[in-house]
Amino acid sequence: MTTASIQIRPSSTLVFSAALLVFVGVVALVSLVALPQDPFDFITDEPFMPPAAGIWLGSDYLGRDVLSRLMDGTRITLFMAMTATLLAHLIGDTLGLTAAIRGGILDAALSRIVDVLLSLPKIIVGLVVVAALGSSIWVIIGIAAVVYSAGVFRIARALGTDLKNMDYIMLARSRGEGTLWILFGEILPHVIRPLATDFALRASFAILFMSSLSFIGLGVQPPLADWGGMARENLGGLSTNPLAAIAPAIAIALVSIALNLLVDALDDDARH
Amino acid sequence: MANIILWRLGATLLILLVVSLLVFWACEILPGDVAQVALGQYATPENVRALRLEMGLDRPAIQRYLEWLVGALQGDWGRSLVTKTPVSSLLSERLANTALLAGVTTLIAVPLAVLLGVVTTMWNGRAFDRAATVSFLALSATPEFLLATLLVLLFAVNLGWLPAVAYLSTGSDFGQTARALLLPTASLVIVVTAQIARMTRAILGSILSQPYIEMAVLKGIPRQRIVGYHALRNAVGPLANVVALNVAYLVSGVVVVETIFAYPGLARLMIDSVQSRDLPVVQACAMIFCATYVVLILLADVLARLFDPHSLAERPTDAL
User: Which intervals hold domain ABC transmembrane type-1 (chain A) (predicted)?
Assistant: First the structure.
């Protein structure tokens, strides 16, 4: 009796993290339509003005509205993280599952490439590529997609290897089903859940990675700013308006923590 | 056992070779004309041509790669495009500063994290344990720059106790160095401790579900002793692995923390060089960071195998 009631009621951390992520998503959508102020407009001559009525988070280093820039940054940050993670999973899942089913030289070659990618510090890869190509939103998304696809590949390959020798796959093969059909029709439905969990975790890594690049000045370039970029450009105002630097950094932490709690809750759920 | 370690060592050397190829390719071939990149778009064609000759860009790429690799192995990384001085002279002091930061962080974080992991496991399920578990998760998911910014706000801006900028000079005494190191180290220690403590807790948790622990429980051995003695002894291998991996992850933490405190380390040098497109310096820093990372991952792997009780038994079939 009690176990049944526990199973129906989702845990409080799950509710908290899901609610927070939905809220952030809504803020990103709202920012597409309307913002309190123009995020690029100088609303005051005073840099780092403390919060006041109507300017709830004060002004930034150029006298722009921090709240509007934070909301605009939500859109940029989420777009970059989602795109990079989607690309990483698209590359990693397809190649990982294909490698597992086909085996042979393809598997060996892809696995060695992934070994090399995983033995590189990601932030250093980011720095070298930015040194070579310069920085833009798409360069950063591309770097994150490639470095995180390696970890996705490992997981997808392991999941695929577990499944490929199962009787029903053998049966599908003997029916003459092709690799692609087996991949999407027979295997994908069974691995979608662990892969979705990995997506959430990978998205939290991607957010931290890309905002770190922006924070050190090599990510999104001004006047655009993601959360990491905002935390950087407003560091000089800690004594008069600390919120300008700290609010975006807290936003990153909250989203990253919510994603991790979500993954933990989903893992627990899967175990019971 | 020795065979496995030698085999892994060989694989590591091979990976380093591949990494050197990638770094060279990324810095010298990917950008197109390196001389043009170094001089910017307003350079005259004569200047670009002169720099191309000076950098030896007229020779084939494979020859330049081999010369660069042989030079790097001997500690000669070429000359900086910006300062025109040998890259190696820029590196040594920066490398020592970063090693100091990472070393002090490791010395503090590792014992602290293992202790926290063990204590929370002993107090499994109590309020303290639950609070600690959530805090570990939250802190390990927090960006280093939030922690660093909060520490600066509190200790440098509001209280005025510590400098916000870590100014290190060769003449500074121990006290000055310690003050400069305190905030950068604290930022890194918090993140690394949370990560290692969280993993320690997970490792001990999985060991505690083993049958021999159940046996110990049934014999009436108190939980403190089971966790602190029986479980911990068998956790040494996985723990050594976790510690080495986390020291490797310090690379990204160091990059962020050196930025915020303007700490004169190798990461700061690399970021400055990326901004000024001083590619020989970027190459050198990238190779040093990658080599350190790869070696630490090798160490993690070897330690995990050395301490694994199963590997002590003669099992030749497991050689692969």
Answer: 74-263
